[in-house]
Amino acid sequence: MAKITLDTLAHSYLADPKSPEDFALQELNHDWADGEAYALLGPSGCGKSTLLNIISGLLIPSHGRVLFDGKDVTHLPTADRNIAQVFQFPVVYDTMTVRENLAFPLKNRKLPQSEISDRVARVAKSIAMEDVLDRRAAGLTADAKQKISLGRGMVRDDVNALLFDEPLTVIDPHMKWELRTQLKQLHHDFGHTMIYVTHDQTEALTFADKVVVMYDGRVVQVGTPDELFERPAHTFVGYFIGSPGMNLFDARIEGTTAEIAGTRVDLGAGYRTKGGATKIGVRPEYICLGASGIPARVTRVEDVGRHKIIRLDMDGHQVAAIAGEGESVPDGGTHVQFAERGVNVYENEWRVPPEGGDGPLHTAREAA
After folding, report:
1. Residues 274, 346: contact at Cβ < 8 Å?
2. N- or C-end of the chain: fewer Cβ atoms within 10 A?
3. What are phi and psi of 27, to 5 degrees?
4. DSSP conformation class of 304
5. Are 90 and 148 in contact (CB under 8 A)?
6. Please, are residues 187 and 194 in contact by the beta-carbon 8 Å criterion?
7. Is the whole model's pTM more than 0.70, yes or no?
8. Per-residue pLDDT at 367
C-alpha cells in the first residue's frame, strides 16, 4: 500500500497546448491517503480515466509528477509501479481454473506453494467463489469473471494500490449491489489503497471513504458523501449528486437575505459576495410547501414508493421538492419555502461559506 501524491499534475493530448481549454486534465495537487478507498466520479469526458491512466502508468502526464510514498514514479512503466488494475471488461484466462487465475500473480512472484494456497483460499472466500475454484473460467458468467478479476487484484498483499476502471459496467443490475458490497468488505478486510472510477453516483457514494468529483477536466470537490450532499463546493456537484439534483435559483444577495423571483428570502446567515453572478442552491429534501414564501404551482407528483417527488413551476423555473409518502400535496397553487440549514450560496458557480463559518453537518434524513 502507498500514499499517492499528485504534484501539479496536468495533461493535454495536444503536442503544444496554448490555453487551459487545451488540457484534458487541469492542474491538480492531491494526496491519496494510504489504505483509503476513493471514487473518481464524473460524467463521460470529464478526465477521470485520464487521471487513472496517469496513476497506473499507462499515460505519462504533460506536466507534474506522480509519487508513491514520496518516490517519483512519473516515468516508471506500469509493471514497476506494483499496482493491480481491474478494467471495465473482465480480464481472465479462460483456459485456467478459477484457482489458477487467482494464483497466477503469486506464481509469477515465485511465492511458496503453501502461501499461494492460503491466499487463494482467503480471497476465494471473500468473493464467494470457494465452490467453483476448480472450474474453468471459460464457462462462467461475466459477473463471475469480474469477481475473478477483483480477486486477482486482492490476492497480493504487496500492491501499492488497486485501481478500478468502471468495473461494474457489464454486470447485470441485480448483481451490482452484491459486488459493491463485496468490494467494500474486501477493502475492510485487506486495507488496500483503492481508486474506483465511475459515472454512477450510487456506486461512488456506497463504495468510497472519499469521493473525488470531476467536471470539465478539473477536480471540483473531494469529500465524504455527506459533505458532497450537504455542502457542494460547486454547482455541478449539487446538480450531479442527488436524485433529483440540487435546485439552483438566480438570486440577489444582500447580507442575510436574498431576492428570488421578486420575493425576499431569509438565509439565516450573512454572506459576503464580490459582485459576481450569485445563486442559491437548495436540495429537494430541504424545500417545503406552505402558505407563504415564493409563489409556485404544482405541475406533477411522482410517487416513487418511499417518498414523493413534487415538480413545481416557479415563475417559469422548474423546481423539485421531496415529500414523505404520507404527506399531502397541494393541488395547483402553493408557495415554496427553504429550510435554512439546507441553503447554499454560490458566486460564479463556487460555494460561498456563511460569515462565521459552517456549523456541523446535518443530513437530509434529519431535515424532515
Report:
1. no
2. C
3. -55, 135
4. -
5. yes
6. yes
7. yes
8. 38
